[in-house]
Write a structure and sequence with these properties.
single chain; seven-stranded mixed beta sheet; six-stranded antiparallel beta sheet; 25% strand
């Protein structure tokens, strides 16, 4: 089939690679515009880099459309000229208007990183880890005007391991999504692609993550803090403050209840967020016990072990995280 691929981040780039390697013909790609290079205040508007899909499509010699919004007569004319029989969408980042969805003769399929109807929306992997889910998966669905509400065509499940970050789960899902996308295109071409309506009563939502949401609240339970560190890795990075500067925290290990380390942390009933000991990683008091910080990134620094942060920056017992 002649496919127009829509997507932006690495997740989508992996799926595009799988389709490019299949028997189907990718006739063009639609992606987000190039963004300034760098992070935060270091972003340089004079230097821009295309999204992962844009890079992969250009490397494959494909026409690339990168509108600010997927609408307007100029864009629709260029899209129509690609001659796609079906649109395949994976983490594109914008809602597609009806004029787009109705354009290809075989409609539009979406590769979504959850087992719909669970976790409709922009951040399904992060939300699943935050909620403590043990499984997730990929859904290939036919797109309609709603937010991830269309009929389900194919699904496959994968496990969320206890130490998985959102980045690790997303990479596995991307590989799975590539295989399922090709299968869906094969079955669509053969006229055997199933479509099963979603049960809206079972739906849940995964709204976009805002950086402020990733701030750690040390009064929460240790297990919830550990999930947050994994769920916000790599973006935006769970964070707290230490001596007035931001400290990202990528791995948190709850200390076993009743262990000597946990008992030590509660000896003087310090408030949540207090650094109470080192092993050599720092131990921090939480709402129901204590945790060990094993992977952090101080302001202006690289990701490092908690022990390296202690040696390099010098936090001491009694320091309070999150007090900025």
């Amino acid at each position: 089939m002649r496919v127009v691929f829509w997507g932006s981040p690495d997740f989508a780039g992996t799926i595009l690679d799988a389709v490019l390697a299949s028997a189907h013909t990718v006739v063009g790609a639609v992606t987000q515009p190039a963004r300034p290079v760098g992070r935060g205040r270091r972003k340089d508007p004079r230097r821009v880099a295309p999204a992962a899909v844009g890079r992969a499509a250009e490397a494959a010699g494909l026409p690339v459309l990168a509108p600010g919004k997927p609408r307007g007569e100029e864009f629709l004319t260029a899209l129509r000229a690609l001659g796609g029989e079906v649109f395949l969408v994976a983490a594109y980042g914008e809602i597609l208007p009806a004029a787009v969805l109705e354009m290809p003769p075989h409609g539009a399929l979406n590769v979504h990183a959850s087992l719909l109807p669970a976790y409709r929306g922009a951040a399904p992997v992060t939300r699943a880890i935050l909620d403590g889910r043990r499984t997730t998966g990929i859904t290939i669905m036919r797109m309609d005007a709603g937010l991830d509400t269309g009929p389900i065509c194919i699904q496959a499940e994968t496990t969320i391991e206890p130490e998985d970050s959102a980045g690790e789960v997303t990479r596995r899902l991307a590989a799975l999504g590539g295989r399922l996308a090709v299968e869906a295109l094969d079955r669509l071409a053969a006229g055997t692609l199933p479509e099963v309506a979603q049960d809206g009563d079972e739906a849940s939502y995964a709204p976009k993550v805002e950086p402020a949401e990733a701030r750690l609240d040390w009064s929460r339970p240790a297990e919830a803090l550990a999930r947050a560190a994994r769920a916000f890795d790599p973006w935006p990075g769970a964070w707290t403050t230490w001596r007035g500067e931001r400290l990202k925290v990528f791995r948190i290990e709850p200390l076993p209840v009743g262990s000597a380390a946990a008992e030590e942390s509660d000896r003087d009933h310090p408030p949540p967020g207090t650094i109470v000991a080192f092993d050599p990683h720092p131990h921090v008091r939480t709402g129901d016990g204590a945790v060990r910080l094993t992977s952090v990134q101080p302001a202006g620094g690289r990701r490092m072990t908690g022990a390296d942060w202690v040696r390099g920056r010098g936090p001491v017992a009694g320091d309070r995280l999150g007090d900025a």
